[in-house]
Amino acid sequence: CISLCRRLTDKLNHFFSDKQRFVDEINSVTAEKLIYNHAVEMVQSAALDEMFQQTEDIAYRYNKASMLLEGLSKILQDPADIENVTK
């Protein structure tokens, strides 16, 4: 019975350790990361459309992505993050 309890305790500890790592990863997702990823996706999508001559709202998407990245560069604190946004 004691060995069974120890095995269960070990399994629970492992489970909670994995759960905490997962929660930490979720908490590291910030609004800034989401905005940055959205802006990058907008530029990539616009570039593909431009390659295939679908030029409907390309300038609008490039401009919007540029404004998002410019806004991020004004609110970010970490120099490495700022450098990534201004590339």
UniProtKB/TrEMBL annotation:
InterPro entries: ATG1-like_MIT2 (IPR048941). Residues 26-77 form the ATG1-like MIT domain. Pfam families: ATG1-like_MIT2 (PF21127). This is ATG1-like MIT domain-containing protein. The lineage of its organism: Eukaryota, Metazoa, Chordata, Craniata, Vertebrata.
